[in-house]
Amino acid sequence: QVHLQESGPGLVKPSQTLSLTCTVSGGSITMNSYYWSWIRQPPGKELEWIGYITSSWSTYVNPSLESRASISRDIPRNQFTLQLSSVTPEDTAEYYCAADPVGTKLELLGRSWRGQGIQVTVSS
Predict the structure, then answer these.
(1) Is-contact 9 119, C-beta < 8 A?
(2) Residues 93-118: pLDDT tens digits?
(3) Terminal C-alpha separation, the chain
């Protein structure tokens, strides 16, 4: 069974870049046919998908965030990362990394395997 664990800062100042890492165990991020993704849930709002990376290095980012978000991976460490630049208080949310079979609808990302989440607050 795939296990995912998020890590990163819990507090980021406005205009800074948020960097989160997802460490994967129980499976390799080079496995075919998986989306390795980031999703988030702002307070009082629904889950929002941020983007994903696949085993073939393809990435796709939510168009609403594509100017600020990027996803990359570190194969030797079996990790993938999210960088979100120019953060504002509206980026305050619980952030999750997840793994889902390719073909999963974007709005359903996180339903197969998901980390426990990390609370990120953007505040000065």
Answers:
(1) no
(2) 999 999 999 999 998 999 899 999 99
(3) 39
Question: Does the pLDDT value for residue 24 go beyond 90?
Answer: yes
Q: Rounded CA gap, 14 and 32, in Å?
A: 37
90 three-state secondary structure: helix
21 vs 103: CA distance, rounded Å:
24
User: Cα-flanking dihedrals φ and ψ of residue 37, to 5°?
Assistant: -130, 165
What average pLDDT score do residues 65-78 get?
Answer: 95
Residue 56: is its pLDDT beyond 90? Answer: no
Side-chain half-sphere of 16: how many Cα atoms within 13 Å? 16
Q: Which two tokens stand for residue 83?
A: 């960088």
Cβ neighbour number for residue 82 with a 10 Å cutoff: 24
